[in-house]
Amino acid sequence: MSATASHLREPLVLGSPSLHDITEQVLAPMERKPSMLWYAVTAATGLVALSGIATISWQLYEGIGTWGLNKTIGWGFDITNFVFWIGIGHAGTLISAILFLFRQKWRTSINRSAEAMTLFAVLCAAMFPLIHMGRPWFGAVWFVPYPNLRGPLWTNFRSPLVWDMFAISTYFTISAVFWFIGLIPDLATVRDRAKTKLRRTIYGTLSLGWSGSNKHWSHYETVYMCLAGLSTPLVLSVHTIVSTDFATSVIPGWHTTIFPPYFVAGAIFSGFAMVMTLLIIARKVLQIEHLITIKHLENMCLIITATGMMVGLAYATEFLMAWYSGSNYEGFTFVNRATGPMSWAYWIMVSCNVISPQVFWFKKMRTSIPVMFVMSIVVNIGMWFERFVIIVTSLHRDYLPSSWAMYSPTWVEYMTLLGSFGIFFTLFLLFTRVLPTIAIAEVKAVSGWAQKPAHGHADGSARAEAGAHAHAAADHDASALAKEPEAVHA
Amino acid sequence: MSAHAPSGPAPQPDFHLPAPIRNAALACAVLGAAAFGYGVMSEAWRGWSNGLISAYYFVSIGVGAAFVLAVMHVTKAGWGIVVRRVPEALATWLPLGLVTLGAVTYFGMHHLYEWSNAETVAHDHLLQHKQPLLNPAAFFGGMVFMIGGWAALVFAMRRHSIAQDTDGDEKHTHANVRLGGIFLVFFGLTITFGALQWLMSTEPHWFSTMFGVYQFAGAHVAASAVIVLFTIGLQRGGFLPNVNDNHLHDLGKMMFAFSTFWAYIWVMQYLLIWYANIPEETGHYLARWEPDWVKLWGLNAVLNFVVPFFVLLPRPNKRNPKVLVPVACTIVVGHWLDIYLQVMPATAHLAHHGSPETVSHGPYLGVPELGAFLMVGGLFVVVVGSMLGRASLLPGRDPYLMESLAHDQ
User: What is the ipTM of this complex?
Assistant: First the structure.
């Protein structure tokens, strides 16, 4: 493929580093001592994480009466944060699975960190329903009979909350396996370069005896392909099931059939924004700007624009149908969203999610790092508010005006939200220290060096030559054999 | 599976719609028109319902192909250059699609849409409420704007594509990226309204926010199937010498993926309405669960999902024309059934003066159904066939052509 790539395609790796250079550049951050900057940032996020954990401990001790919920608004920050973090967790598997199936080679330099981010985000998300149970030591096993005095009390398997538990645990498991499988060749590279016995043992164990032989690659690619196929429906299923938590109810503003695809689009939207926030910083700090190029970021901007418009279309469709249905309750809910006491949240959502991403129609904007960075944060503010709007404004003025209420979150809820960000960023910072942040073997396959035809074989078998080159360049680095996982199976 | 890059495309033969096919298609159209006329004469509501089903069916194929085309441009897809002229030609059906859909809905309006009857509206509070959207002026004005807009963008993309064959200028590629983007935005907004006015309003009390997405999913998978059929037909005739198993494989994957997407939307719309069990929404499904209709309702999922999913799962099947053609035919029939099940139970209730709660008779399968389909389908084949002959079947100077020729998976 590569030898015939159109001249319109921009290179995915800039500055034509050799294959060995790529190994060096990607592994440098984890092979040198952490910088002061890393210590300082990690200490800061770690402190936030710890204060979040302390707050969580407090509410477990005292009970969730410490929150601002009331009898009308039974879900507030807790479920908003849950859906927000689950949404963030969508980009990783979309990049690793769906973009893999679509043969989008630009995914190779961002998939590793996006998948890591996915796992951390899902962990943050899982925390919230657990806390919300009040007594998670019972709740954590809610798929077995709940202990009580009147005999076995089974969970309701028709409840979307139970489906959610299965959907998310499946997603987490498959994403983790997928991530690990993709790591194996790179872990072997780290093992081969290890200078201490401890490092060699740890990475040697993790790399499962990888030797870079043809047979290993062949098995690897088959497994990778199968996992990509299995993960693809999971990307859709998780947020679909999250959407049914709301849409199976009869609450106006929650019960609407467009919720499943609309939630999935929104999740991809926010997930990509978070990947962008992290990678804009990481590529600069880790000095890998030639591997994660403006082109990569531009592609992410385009996906953000597309999914942002899908979300906008869903907002508009909901409004249209609320009017079209002729149902007073539907109509009231939506008018109340846009003009009621919480309309500020609604308009933050619309301006962040629908209006502001339109700047990416202009090439200048989607190739400007400051614009992208600001936009990636704006989008995630908007997506947090989207969940807040759906959950709180639909609940706060329900069928009975006598039970209308307002919601004011307490410091416990704010601190828990902040703490979840602390946990997330701390885990990501640790990740950049202990694992290769970029899929080395995959990036080598799309680098200009690997695709250069050999002398005298100008239009010959490009892929075989690329493999030979890689082999020669990395002869003491067997695992770095540049293969092209995408191109072998389908 | 050679890894060698080809030095250039195989010579592209000229294509003209063969006279026997053209005559057969015209004969189908004429016979179909006669059967359609007979249907309208003998049982007006049934005749017009079939007119709507068939006219909408081919509009959805046209706009589905336009969607595939726009996505190919916007995503700068390299693989599909050698098959691109097929969706380009299929989408040119849209102007005639507007004429056929406009004609059947204009002349059959009172048999199709309860809201078009002033007397009914006078006694129905909800229909009065919906009048800003459900009235003839908004209906036909919207139709001209929407399908007209789709067609204008399709012809603009096609013009750039064909102009590039002569001048080889890359500006056409860039222009089509922009046009494709505009099409996708416009399509997203309009399909919601189109699906609502043309199909959903046959049951004017029912509503579902998912409905536009549902019609999009159906149009996309059916258009993929028709692209497969035309591509394999042309390839068999020797007119697409540059298309090989790898391109068929991608088309097969597209059918597979979007048949699954259709099933996802189909099942979620149903699941949410079943679960909430709100009377305003369940009427739609109750009407299709009457004993007369329920078997077809189940068959719909078999044809559009179960068969394509399981047959296309193994890799070799996606590369084998002998498998792809029957699966594509299954989807082509399944998509017709999908629309039939939207329209027919609704208009049957209307014809029998029932509200959606009363029992209707059915299903109706016979001469009027076949006739209306052949009438529009015959014209569709003639138009698309001649449009295929208007330009080379190979965009020979596309800057991504070499990627498509070397496509290998």
Answer: 0.91
